[in-house]
Design a protein that fits this description.
By secondary structure, this protein is of the alpha+beta class. It has three helices and 13 strands, in the order ββββαβββββαβββαβ.
Length: about 180
Amino acid sequence: MNTVRISIMGNICVSCARVGNYAVSDLPTASHSEALMMISPDVKHIDVNLLYLNNILYNDTVPFVPPIQFGKVIKVYDGDTITIASLLPNTIEPVYRFSVRLNGINSIEKADGTKNKILESDAKEALHNLVYGKIVYLKKTKTAKFARILADVYCDGVHVNQWLLDNQYAVPFKPVGK
């Protein structure tokens, strides 16, 4: 039988985000739900100790990059952003969706006029035809603005970022000030 530790003051529930002051208990049990029932049938959450956050500053942290390498394309947002469905490593559920911006390229995204609207639609359609419903492989992942993953995307052996450049659906992206 496993032991579940329910921790103390200054804690927040992982599932419902309520703050509380609970006693430390080591409960022999097979599951968290059984541990909760042993404490009280009314308790519906388990707290985690938040004391380690007391002195944390921005510079003490690192950006979180979801450890995703593969996913199925379930949406093409525009000519350089897709949404993939994937599990986190070593899990069997839930299946998460992740927004992925293709690294190093920029397609026309704003309808600034008739010509640009046509080019935007062409880029999105080309990307859709290439990757939608398929499994893609992500390399060189990092985080980008708007909680997106920034990555080189490969599909059926094709480097999608480079394919969009080669077929003039995108231009090289150069960040401002770099």
